[in-house]
Amino acid sequence: MSQAGKTLFDTIWNDHRVNDAPAPDGGPDTLYIDLHLIHEVTSPQAFSILRDRGMKLRHPNQTMATMDHSTPSTPPRPDGTYVIENPDAEIQLTALESNCSEFGVPLYPLGHENQGIVHVTAPELGLVQPGMTIVCGDSHTSTHGAFGALAFGIGTSQVAHVFATQCLLAKRPKTFEIRIDGALQPGVSAKDVILSVISQIGTEAGTGHVFEYTGSAIRAMSMEERMTVTNMSIEGGATAGLIQPDEVTFDYLQGRDFAPQGPDFDEAVADWRSRFQPADGVYDRCVSFNADEMEPMITYGTNPGMGMPVRDTVPDPADLENKSDRLSFQRALDYMRVEPGKPLLGHPVDVVFVGSCTNSRLSDLRDAAGLMDGRKVNDGVRMLVVPGSRKVKAAAELEGLDQIFLRAGAEWREPGCSMCLAMNGDKIEPGQLSVSTSNRNFEGRQGKRGRTVLASPLTAAACAVTGVITDVREMM
Ligand code: SF4
Question: Which overall architecture, per CATH, does domain 8-171+259-268 show?
Fold first, then answer.
C-alpha cells in the first residue's frame, strides 16, 4: 500500500478509524483498539461500571493485566507470599485478581514470571507490535510508540468504554516531528536525549500533538533506548510518541512469546515493511536537534522541563518576562533548595533510585552496573536498584549484575514501580534529595516534601558513588 502524503501517525489512525469518514467539525473519531493494558490502580472502577451494567469485556484476550504500582519491592517470604504493608495496596491487588478472574482477563500477578511494570513487561512479551493501537489507564503508555504503535493513556471511564466495546472515542491529534540527527557522545544516553528535548521545547509544547521521532540518532538507538525516549513524550505534553518500525524493531520482536512465530513472523515483517515505509507526509510542526551537542542532563526544578546539562548553572527566574512564570519558577527553586546562577555539581545526594518504566530495562541496569563495578556506594547514600520486570531481574542476575550492585552496597529489589511514585512504601524522607532515573520530579512524587533530580542510569550511578551530583564523564 502506498504511503503517499501520510505520516506514520496518519497510517495507523486511518487504519483504526471505525467511522467511514473523519468525524465532522473536529469531533471524535471512533478508534478500534488492538491492545488494552491494565494494572491495579486505574482498573477497579472500570470493572465496577461493567458489573453495574451487567456487561462483559468485548475482547478479554486483547487485554493484559499485571501488577506494578502497589507491589512490594522486598523479597517474598519463604512460602512465596509477599508482605504488603499498605492495606490500600492489598485491596487494589486483591481486587485486580478477582476482577480478572470474573471477567476472564489474562493476569500476571505478583510473583509470576511475566509480572512487572506494564510498560516493561508488555513489550518484552512481544505483545506490542508495529501499527497497533494500544491504550492503558496510565500516561506513560506512550512508551509503546517505540515500536511504531499508537499508544496513549486513557481515563477510568474510557477504560470501561474499551472494556465494553474494544473501541475509543478520540479526537485526532496533530503531528509534531522531533528530528534528532548526529551521534551521541560517550556518557550521553537516551534519557539525556529526551531530557534535553523537553528542557528546550517545554512541558506543554506537545499539547494536542503526537510526537514522531525521526533522524539518524533515533535510528541508531536500540529498542530499549527508543522506549526511554517515547516513554517521556507525555512529559513534553504530547498525547503519544512514535518511531517508525525498522530492522531494529523486527529483530527485537523475533522469538518473543506473543509475536508471530515461524513463517507467520516472516509474513508479519513483510507486511510491516510495506505498510510503514518512511513517511512522506507533512507534519503540523517540526523541530530539529543535534545529538553531537547533547550532554548528560539533570533536572533542577519540579517538572521534567526544568533540566540542564549537568555542568550548567541553574537558570535565573529574573530572566523570565512574565511575573507569574517568575514566581512559579522561584517557588520550584525554593522547593528544591537550589540557587539561580549556581551549578548543581557537588550538591549532596541522599538517595539514588535506578528503576521505573523509563530506565529499568536490562541495558539500563548494565549501564549503572558497568559504572559501579569495583566501586562503592558513598557513605550516607541509599541506592535502590529496582528491575522493571521479573524477566529483567532474572536476566540481570544471570549476568551477575545483582552481585555488582550488592557488592557496591546498593539494594537489589523485586520488580515494580517502587520509588517512581512511592505507592508501595519505597519512599524518600522529607527534605531528602533523590537522583532518580524515573520520569517525574513533581513535588512529593517520591515521598512527602522529597526532592527529585531526574537523570540517566549512568549519571545516577556516578552520583551514588560520589555522594554528590556528578558529571559521569569524569568517571568513564
Ligand atoms: S514506573 Fe512510574 S511512571 Fe512508570 S508506570 Fe510505574 S508509576 Fe507510572
Answer: 2-Layer Sandwich (3.30)
